[in-house]
């Protein structure tokens, strides 16, 4: 760790990016404790601890970094922005005009990003209204109601505060992406989950002291957590490398000898996006239920979609598989890859250049993406059985571990790329470990 910090400090640009990212995350964590006007956060904390910690509200509180329990202006978290991103990415596939705009380069992507921001504000208003109505009905058996004086005045002020909070988080994430290190939106979620880990450890220890979690079960939990982390690290670095052969060619009037190279395809090209997107969609029925509390069928759907239920797990897995394929298709264009190989004089061994190469890459990518989707689904769903059966804190779920480990690895790779580009050997120095890809040539 000392070598890592020393190497970062030697690169002024990298140092400023890391410090900027840490400063933005610190501001985000401070904002989590700014309470919405007109509510009592102590009553909300008592309610969450007694009833809502393990259900859908616990999931929302997890992704908001504990802001829901604090009834913070950041209680909606970054989920409205993620939902808006999902809608715009779906439109790029369905609507030809949006697809053409997406292919126009930086100008088109800036326009789509602008529409995403507008969509984030609209969804924040809708979800903020639903949350305000929900808060008015929340009561603690010991402390009373969460809202002191309800009505449309409180609802308007609450929606305004929550929308402003979500918009500010969106701005923080974009600033981290542009001027810091890593994906800003993922780092915001990462910071929220990591901030709750000490509390989860303390809660687990209290359950062990009270005899609610036996020592053998605690050992099983620790082993499962270590095993899940090892599986995540293995698959996140796994690659299928396609052999590419370059013919003898002339570059700047100089002959370049024939050479072989590899086209690396990640088993999990979508990263942590699928579980985040899937969780965001599964939260949407709860928003509708607050607007239509008299619809018994909608209340039944919300109850069925509580984390740990069979219906929730089935929908969660289906959405994860869908978004693994969808996000990979959006971010990876096999036709462009095949054209670039052909222009550079390269060809996949045993495959014709052009259309056949694109089809071959698609076929290989589909196979390994299926394996990646199964891996993500297993990691996100299987640990929930422990939460349901042994009352394990929600932070030890596979989704939170996947996000924490995946975002940490991605950020470490970006830091390492900055160091290597400036002639440093690796992330930890000349003798330090390097974030290498793992070959899966038999897939």
Please sum up the structure shown.
By secondary structure, this protein is of the alpha+beta class. It contains 18 helices and eight strands.
What would you note in describing this structure?
By secondary structure, this protein is α+β, with helices and mostly antiparallel strands. The protein has two domains: 32-180, no CATH class; 197-406, Orthogonal Bundle (Preprotein translocase SecY subunit). Helix content is 67%, strand content 7%. The chain contains 18 helices and eight strands. The strands form three sheets. Strands 3, 6, 7 and 8 form a four-stranded mixed β-sheet that branches. A two-stranded antiparallel ribbon has the order 1-2. A hairpin with a 2-residue loop joins strand 4 (249-251) and strand 5. Helix 7 (106-136) runs antiparallel to helix 8 (152-179) and helix 16 (355-381) crosses helix 18. The two termini are 35 Å apart. The mean pLDDT is 80.
């Amino acid at each position: 760790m000392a070598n890592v910090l020393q190497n970062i400090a030697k690169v002024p640009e990298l140092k400023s990016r890391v410090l900027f990212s840490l400063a933005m995350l610190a501001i985000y964590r401070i904002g989590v404790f700014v309470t919405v006007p007109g509510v009592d956060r102590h009553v909300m904390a008592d309610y969450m601890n007694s009833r809502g910690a393990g259900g859908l509200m616990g999931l929302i509180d997890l992704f908001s970094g504990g802001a829901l329990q604090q009834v913070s202006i950041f209680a909606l978290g970054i989920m409205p922005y993620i939902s808006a991103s999902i809608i715009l990415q779906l439109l790029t596939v369905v609507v030809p005009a949006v697809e053409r705009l997406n292919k126009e380069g930086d100008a088109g992507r800036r326009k789509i990003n602008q529409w995403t921001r507008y969509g984030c504000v609209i969804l924040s208003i809708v979800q903020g209204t639903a949350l305000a109505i929900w808060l008015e009905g929340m009561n603690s058996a010991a402390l009373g109601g969460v809202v002191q004086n309800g009505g449309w005045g409180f609802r308007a002020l609450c929606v305004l505060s929550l929308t402003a909070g979500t918009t500010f988080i969106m701005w923080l994430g974009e600033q981290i992406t542009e001027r810091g290190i890593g994906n800003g939106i993922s780092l915001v979620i990462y910071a929220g989950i990591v901030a709750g880990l000490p509390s989860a450890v303390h809660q687990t220890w209290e359950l062990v002291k009270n005899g609610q979690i036996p020592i053998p079960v605690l050992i099983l939990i620790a082993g499962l957590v270590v095993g899940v982390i090892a599986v995540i690290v293995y698959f996140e670095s796994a690659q299928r490398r396609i052999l590419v052969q370059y013919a003898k060619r002339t570059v700047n009037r100089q002959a370049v000898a024939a050479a072989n190279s590899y086209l690396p395809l990640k088993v999990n090209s979508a990263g942590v996006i699928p579980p985040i997107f899937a969780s965001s969609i599964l939260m949407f029925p709860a928003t509708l239920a607050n607007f239509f509390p008299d619809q018994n069928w909608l209340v039944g759907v919300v109850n069925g979609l509580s984390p740990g239920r069979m219906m929730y797990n089935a929908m969660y897995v289906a959405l994860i598989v869908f978004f693994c394929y969808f996000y990979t298709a959006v971010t990876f264009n096999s036709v462009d890859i095949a054209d670039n190989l052909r222009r550079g004089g390269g060809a996949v061994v045993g495959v014709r250049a052009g259309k056949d190469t694109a089809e071959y890459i698609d076929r290989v990518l589909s196979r390994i993406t299926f394996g990646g989707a199964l891996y993500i689904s297993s990691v996100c769903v299987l640990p929930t059985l422990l939460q349901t059966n042994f009352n394990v804190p929600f932070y030890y779920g596979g989704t939170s571990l996947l996000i924490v480990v995946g975002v940490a690895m991605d950020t470490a790779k970006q830091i390492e790329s900055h160091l290597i580009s400036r002639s440093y050997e690796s992330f930890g120095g000349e003798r330090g470990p390097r974030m290498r890809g793992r070959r899966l040539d038999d897939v």
